[in-house]
Amino acid sequence: MNYLDIIIPFVGGLGMFIYGMQIMAQGLENAAGNKMKTLLEVLTKNKLMGVLLGAAITAVIQSSSATTVMVVGFVNAGIMNLTQAMGVIMGANVGTTVTGWLVSAVEWAKFLSPAKLAPIAVILGVVIMLTGKRRSSKEISSIIIGFGLLFIGITTMSSAVEPLQESEAFCGILVTLGNNPIMGILTGALVTAVIQSSSASVGILQSLAAAGLVPFSAAVYIIMGQNIGTCVTAILSSLGAKKNAKTAALMHLLFNIIGSVIFSVFAIVFFEIINPTMGAGMISQTQISMVHTAFNIGTTVLLFPVSGWIISLAKKIGRVDEDGQDQSVVLLDDRILETPGIALQSTVKEVARMAKIVEESLEVAKEVLFTLKEEDIQFLKEEEDTVDKLSAGITNYAIKLSSLQISEKEHQDVAHLLQMISDIERISDYCENISEFAETLYEKKVSFSEVGTAQLKEMLDVCADSYKYAYEAFTERSREKALKVIEKETQADDLEITLRSKHIKRLANNQCNTEAGVVFLDALVCLERISDHARNIAEEVLEQQA
Length: 546
Prior knowledge:
By secondary structure, the protein is mainly alpha-helical. It is built from 23 helices and no strands.
């Protein structure tokens, strides 16, 4: 037997299977569009919602490894805590069974015969791709072509291994795996770790089953191992990440190991004592799908009540304590860029967090010119440094996001965000300037006159309100709040002219301290510019809604 004639077409079929799976997954993900953006909102719900979310995402992108890598990214970015991550990880194991059912459809849905359906799917997808002009047509064509290539790949693999039915050595190896649970689990884990896809690994097993080569018991143990091997991708992705991100990957590994051990013990008892004949019989593609699904759903149901214990164990092993994040750390992760819709929503949330920090700074700036407290002056300087770091980090991330294959609407959203980041950062700069004015007043031991104090407070209130409405317009996507910003900004412009004129008259009449008077005029300029940048933010919001 020439094994080279088996290996080459098998490897080629495997490549086509994986490529088809990726094309189809990308098409499905793109077709989901803005719906993917709302998934982050679900993450704030309970653990059960996380399970459903994990299953849904994995069913779309057809890779539990990819979902778990995404979860590691979320945890590393501080968007998701470990409890939320645990739910998504459990759901990912359930969602990954979809590909197996697609492959086994050739058995339980005869009309889906790859020999007939796959070529039709590919040519249909190509026709749509060449003739369709809308973006949605391209996505549909990707789904159909990927579906066809997936089936062609599995057919090629199945055909390639058919001669192995005559190989006593190969059949003997599979029988050995069925009789030796540890070897079966290790084989499944190793193959899956190498190709880094449990879906592809299950596809290989199903292609062997289609040729009538796989004993039932061997398949069960290999499937257990596949669920352990799929954790390798997430573990590798967590290298270099924060401790809690590594803990998320460790939770995935612990969950799958515990589930595999429990069900392996059950399988050993069943195949060795209860029904040895069934273990020795050959398994079908559909039965592999059934075992894979039953195992993952069963593990989730069984371990869901004790998932908190798994989290605690992972944290103990990883020596992790989920403390508060440093505010200047940008809570975005490149892993999330694999799903641009969610990456965009994450960026929006991070811009909102930066904007909130500036709002808090502005509240302190409203008082510091009058209280001259050293701690407030220092606070504003530290917050400005924090905002600078956030601005640089978020901007770099947004630029990476804009370079991806995203829709025109998403490109526009990123452009609006970049402009808003610039405006928010400039407002933070002006807050720092105000702290420096307060420092000047403190060092020179001067203060504003009673009239000057009242007028400056009036200007501060108007400008602070303009930013407050801008922040709310952005976070609430409120057209009404955006229009209020424009109203406040116009009021600030008029007030700045009026107060400047009155103050110059007071200076001419020696009614206030000259040094304090210079600070008064500089503060007016800063505050008017704060209102200008707040208006810019409001106009970006209005453009987004146009």
